[in-house]
Amino acid sequence: MSMGAAQLSTSADSSGSPGRAPQAAAATLFAYVLSLADDALVLGHRLSEWSGRGPTLEEDIALSNLALDLIGQARLCYAYAGEIEGRGRDEDALAYLRDEHAYRNLLLLEQPNGDFAMTMTRHLLYAAFLDPYFKALSASADNRLAEIGAKAAKEMAYHLRHAAEWVIRLGDGTEESHARVAAALDEVWMYTGEMFEMDAGESALSAQGIAVDRSSIRPTWEATLARVLAEATLARPTDRWMQRGGRAGQHSEHLGRLLAEMQVLHRAHPGASW
Questions:
Q1: What is the per-residue burial (b if ≥16 Cβ within 10 Å, else e) of 151-167?
Q2: Which of 8, 20, 208, 269 has minimal Cβ neighbours within 10 Å of its Cβ?
Q3: Treating both helix axes as pointing N-terminal to C-terminal, what angle do 143-171 and 57-85 enclose, rounded to 10 degrees?
Q4: Does residue 37 fall inside a structural domain?
Q5: Is residue 3 part of a domain?
């Protein structure tokens, strides 16, 4: 059951803290790293729900591998978050022993999979953001975050290509597939604004060169979506009121159900190991 210890090298900064910029308050850095971990874990679990149910055998395997990438990213971030917090909580405790309102993931990622068109649309919108985000994070002043960003950037480049190819295939496919992916795009668009929001703590980390300025990612995100949607013969939804609250622990009803399924084994057998 144990998720194990993350294996990333670190180097000490001038304060003696391994891989951590000395200007960052521990609580602020902890909250930031935890949000990255929660994003990866929740979406990873959502994609894992396709295992054994994919539209083809090859896609079933592909979706499982995408989920594993995200779970791996979550492990690295949870392990680092536990070290920053210094309260003895390891990655298992942070992943499995927190309640719904303690999670800081984006609302987009907890939405149900729906049909295959919905899953690929959601993944495109997020991967188009994460691909340039992790590339930028690889230059973080925090050595551990830079290493996590460099590793994750390689994975997200594939995630983006995979999702884009499917959205293009569905959008420029049959009348039915076009209608489904268009409906999915309209349904989840209202969650995209939250990806670019930053609280005071994350803004402070960005000013120190630790976190990434999310607004700097928007032009790349917009350009990627414009290219993919044009090839898919899909119209970009009109910007309107955006849903928010995930970073503050205000979630939809879907997250509680997801966590109940994900956490049941660990909570039923705390401390067990394989």
A1: bbbebbbebbebbbebb
A2: 269
A3: 150
A4: yes
A5: no
Unique residue bearing structure tokens 């989840």: 188
* Structural domain range at position 237: 26-268
- Residue 86 sits in a domain whose CATH number is 1.20.1260.10
Six token digits for residue 217? 């990612």
Global confidence as pTM: 0.86
Residue 1 within a domain = no
158-171 pLDDT, tens per residue? 999 999 999 999 99
Domain assignment present for 260: yes
At 27, which amino acid appears? A
41-70 tens-digit pLDDT: 999 999 989 888 888 888 989 999 999 999
Owner of token pair 């190991």: 273
Count of structural domains within the chain: 1
Work out the number of other CB atoms within 10 angstroms of the CB of residue 237.
15
Q: What's the one-letter identity of residue 163? A: A
In angstroms, rounded to a whole number, what is the distance separating the alpha carbons of residues 108 and 153? 20
What does residue 130 show for φ and ψ, rounded to 5 degrees? -70, -30
CA distance to 35, 92, 99, 231, per residue, from 199 (Å): 12, 26, 22, 35
pLDDT (tens digit, 9 = 90+) per residue, 79-136? 999 999 999 999 988 988 888 888 999 999 999 999 999 999 999 999 999 999 999 9
